[in-house]
Amino acid sequence: MQTADTPQPRLVGDTNWDGLHRPRIYYAIAATFCGLFLSVLDGSICNVALPSMAAQLGVPSEDSIWIVNAFQLAVMMLLLPFASLGELWGYKRVYVSGIVVFSIGSLLCALAPSFAALVVARTVQGVGAAMLMSVNTSLVKLIYPRRHLGEGVGLNATVVAIASVAGPALSAAILSVGPWPWLFAINVPIGIVTFAMARKYLPDNPVRVVGRRFNIREAVLNAATFGLFIGCVEAYSHDAPAPAVLGGAALMLAVGFAYVRMQRKEQYPMLPLDLLRIPIFTTSVATSVISFTAQMLVMVGMPFMLSHTFGLGAVGIGLLMVSWPVAIVFVAPLAGWLISRVHPGILGGVGLALMCAGCFMLSSADAATGHAGLVGRLMLCGAGFGLFQSPNNHLLLSSAPPQRAGSASGMLATARLTGQTLGAALVALLFHLAGPAAPHDALLLAACLTACAATCSCLRLKEKMAGA
Predict the structure, then answer these.
(1) Cβ neighbour number for residue 212 with a 10 Å cutoff
(2) Alpha carbon of 191 to those of 157, 214, 263: distances in Å?
(3) Mean pLDDT across the chain, nearest whole number?
(4) Burial of 15 (0-12, 13-18, 19+ CB in 10 A)
(5) Do residues 104 and 364 make contact, with C-beta atoms less than 8 angstroms apart?
(6) 404: buried, middle or exposed (CB in 10 Å: 19+, 13-18, 0-12)?
(7) Is-contact 287 412, C-beta < 8 A?
(8) pLDDT digits (tens, 9 = 90+) for 121-164
(9) At residue 341, what are phi and psi to the nearest 5 degrees?
(10) pLDDT per residue over 299-322, tens digit each?
(11) How confident is the model at residue 14 (pLDDT cuts 50, 70, 90)?
């Protein structure tokens, strides 16, 4: 908090920075996308192996979920603090340090002699992933010239989409030739190569704020707020006693209130309230949270439908579910190219309308629906989501001033992970309420939420775009 005697922060640097040029841009892109792919991938890569890992480590199946939760908690608690640190310390420095921490965590996971050691190592890995995710899109904004930023954001969205759903398939492939420690050991050589490229080719911050300091109290309150949020969601999803869940929720609200109250007094808040006062930024964040909630409802609910209604095994389910990211691979770059030609609000609205139609059709699928019909509906959802995600991310980033690009990047990742967490929790809630009908209800709810997100996206048409 600034006082009357404290020097006021001031902006210095090259405000006309317009990206990198060939050939350096190619190596910088590769370094950015490799780190992003690893950090997103490792959120789900060990899910398939949890039963065998629990058996080998001698822990109950319900306890093995902490191998996943430890990683997710670390990421959610630290995204915004590291995004803020990136604005002060440099996005490149945070990213390179994140690669080191993530690679060390991966090595510790591979060498973990016990369950407790593995959970600690996964927490270290999550810290590194938070560092990578928090500044990823900020680096994309620095790397690409302004006229090509839409294409860069589109490719970035493609990497996230592929990594989000590639975990089970890659996990099965690795486990077919080696034991579970190789799920983590494979990250180490890739991390070393990524570190070398990132250190040499990534640009430093062209714009920075002199006189601004990192606030430890803000970081602690941020971590406590998001940690309690994830903890409450996970506790409810795993049938924790109601008093414990309610007590945790009450504590979360109290800590969150204190956190927001502190942030309102800051010129550059860690929780970017200054950016949330920009209508088009806030609408983009809200649209992102709703759409990722809907996506996760499908990703978690659909496998149960494929298993119960269509009698498919794990391999068949995995092959069908790949239809979604395959569509994104083709559509997201196209959406990035269209950003400079069509208002992102229109692209997002059309894309989410397509996803909404796909979710409604999936919710009505029955045993008579063939595999081709399922693939077509999943690809319609994926194409719609790809058409939405790139323009939405571009609009969110471009609406933030240069010195707040780190916070915009952190908020983008936070919105994605918040939506995914809520989506998984809603599926658990539907299983409690609807039993065997839960997968159908999850897809129907996803369609309704996507319709709301499409409306939210179209509301941005009345807002003036950055630079317009």
Answers:
(1) 20
(2) 21, 28, 35
(3) 84
(4) exposed
(5) no
(6) buried
(7) no
(8) 999 999 999 999 999 888 988 898 888 888 888 888 888 877 87
(9) -115, -25
(10) 878 888 887 778 877 667 777 877
(11) low
Are 28 and 142 contacting, i.e. CB atoms less than 8 angstroms apart? no
Q: pLDDT tens digits, residue range 271-285?
A: 888 888 888 888 889
Q: Are 390 and 157 in contact (CB under 8 A)?
A: yes
Q: Cβ-count burial of 261 within 10 angstroms (0-12 exposed, 13-18 middle, 19+ buried)?
A: exposed
SS3 percent helix, strand, coil of the chain, rounded to 5, is: 80, 0, 20
| Tokens encoding 168 | 């089970």
Residue 437 CA: distances (Å) to CA of 305, 366, 412, 428, 432:
9, 12, 33, 12, 10
The model's pTM is: 0.81
Q: Pull the structure tokens for residue 253.
A: 């609200």
Structure tokens at 348: 């997002």
Beta partners for residue 329, in sequence order: none
Name the nearest CA neighbour of 110 among 189, 187, 191, 166: 187
SS3 283: helix
Cβ contacts of 301 within 8 Å, gap of 6 or more: 427, 430, 438, 439, 441, 442, 443, 446
- What residues are paired with 208 via a beta bridge? 12
Residue type, position 74, single letter: A
Planar angle of CA 234, 237, 242, nearest 5 degrees: 95
Cβ(421)–Cβ(233) under 8 Å?
yes
- Tally of CA atoms within 13 A in the half-sphere of 276 that contains its CB: 15
Give the CA distances from residue 136 to residues 101, 435, 451, in Å, rounded to whole numbers and listed in that order.
16, 40, 29
Alpha helices in 42-148 (DSSP H): 50-57, 61-64, 66-89, 91-111, 115-143
Element (H, E) at 247: helix 242-263
User: What letter represents residue 315's amino acid?
Assistant: V
The residue with tokens 């030739």 is: 177
For every residue of 19-64, DSSP letters joined together read ---TTHHHHHHHHHHHHHHHHHHTTTTTTTTHHHHHHHHT--HHHH
Distance (Å, rounded) from C-alpha 317 to C-alpha 296?
16
R_g over Cα of the chain: 21
Tokens representing 143 are 């790397």
Q: Which amino acid is at 464?
A: K
